[in-house]
Amino acid sequence: MLAGCVQTMPVRDEASVPHYRQEVPKTPPHIILHYSGFKAYWDWLILVLTFYTAVMVPYNAAFQASIMTEAAAAAVNRQSHRCAYFPVSSIT
């Protein structure tokens, strides 16, 4: 019953396929192949650096930011004396 509805694909020989489809594509030298050893090494390096950043940035923000050197504290004190508070008055 379904045998009449099913069509067979035409058979293609080598001559019907264009020549550019049969050639292996040439990869430029500046392209990193996704299956190369260098790409695997690069991926692991980026993963390790990402985890390092994910741990060290919050650590430095939480523990190292509160420890200021004397020079940094003096610089902050000098800048705070320059700024004065001027209340904004509305002009009518």
Shape: elongated
Q: Beta-strand percentage?
A: under 5%
- State the helix count: 3
Secondary structure class reads mainly alpha
Largest sheet: none
- Cα radius of gyration in angstroms: 34 Å
Q: How many strands?
A: 0
End-to-end separation in angstroms reads 93 Å
Structure, described:
- Helix content is 49%, strand content 0%.
- The chain is an all-alpha fold and 92 residues long.
- The longest helix is centred in the middle third of the chain and has 28 residues.
Outline the fold blueprint.
Blueprint: H1 19-22, H2 37-64, H3 70-82
Concise summary:
The chain has 92 residues and is mostly helical. It contains 3 helices and no strands. It has a domain at 31-60.
Task: List the main descriptive attributes of the protein structure presented here.
3 helices; 92 residues; mainly alpha; single chain
